[in-house]
Write a structure and sequence with these properties.
Elements lengths: L1 H11 L12 H4 L9 H7 L5 H4 L29 H4 L5 E4 L9 H10 L4 E5 L15 H6 L4 E6 L11 E3 L19 H10 L3 H8 L28 H4 L2 H25 L1
Parallel strand pairs: 1-2, 2-3, 3-4
């Protein structure tokens, strides 16, 4: 019976974000996370034992620190911090590596083992780092091997071996430049700029269906372009571009896209 119940919990953990963000076409078709209403959560999966929970700090696995702009979600666009609002803290939990209170792998594994059903973890922050950051440290393998851990979703995930529980999540647009806190910077100005390009699924679709649109995508490392940057081969224009120049390049691209958008409207 317990195995059937656990399997049911896992099945529920794969429900689309659509159930909460049903208007958010930018998110609902690209993200799979645990998301359930509280009454359903209470009736479908067993609660953890209070005596066991007392063995861990209050708020475990992590007490998140929020910035001054908690009310600016960026909806309907994906942000680095909206994950905090869509986990249910019963079968899905959001953690921020590099932030205060992030637990050690040993303690986190012990806590996962104590849960009454399989859980899913979401790792993400505003640091330009992969997860796991140090693949030489095999602690992450022990974490992913936990039977009571269903999956781990993370931003900037490493390409590990097939069959791993580690899955990537979309990180969305650039929203913050000076702060790495959750909701650490104002989103209003950038929201207006992004909205000028597309605010709905149909508008985005038109942009992608523009005739002669190139499918080429240039990629570059996420590290800062300064003396601390790790050495890598700079053999394309994208890899030669420093971060300080990206804002100006994006501005030109946005103006070009706006012109294309107007052209599509005229053609319609």
């Amino acid at each position: 019976m317990m195995r059937k119940l656990n399997n049911f919990c896992i099945l529920l953990s794969l429900i689309y974000v659509h159930f909460k963000y049903k208007r958010d076409v930018h998110v609902s078709k690209s993200v799979h996370v645990v998301l359930l209403d509280e009454p359903l959560a209470s009736n479908s999966c067993p609660l953890s034992q209070e005596s066991i929970d007392l063995e861990f700090p209050i708020g475990f696995p992590q007490n998140l620190t929020f910035g001054r702009f908690r009310d600016q979600t960026g909806f309907p666009f994906i942000t680095q911090d909206f994950w905090a609002d869509i986990v249910d803290n019963r079968r899905t939990f959001f953690l921020r590596p590099k932030d205060n209170g992030f637990p050690s792998m040993d303690v986190l594994r012990k806590w996962i083992q104590s849960r009454p059903h399989p859980i899913t973890l979401v790792f993400n922050n505003n640091h330009d780092r992969s997860w796991p950051e140090n693949i030489e440290n095999k602690a992450y393998e022990l974490l992913l091997d936990e039977e009571n851990l269903h999956q781990v979703f993370a931003g900037n995930v490493r390409n590990l071996s097939k069959g791993t529980k580690l899955k990537p999540i979309p990180i969305g647009f650039k929203w913050q430049w000076r702060s790495t806190l959750l909701f650490g910077e104002e989103k209003k100005i950038l929201f207006q700029r992004y909205s000028e390009i597309s605010i709905s699924e149909n508008e985005s679709k038109k942009l992608f269906l523009v005739p002669n649109r190139t499918d080429t995508v240039w990629m570059r490392p996420m590290m800062n372009s300064n003396k601390r940057t790790q050495n890598y081969e700079r053999n394309t224009d994208a890899l030669k571009t420093t971060r300080v120049d990206i804002s100006g390049i994006l501005k030109k691209v946005l103006l070009s896209l706006l012109s294309l958008k107007k052209m599509v409207i005229l053609l319609d």
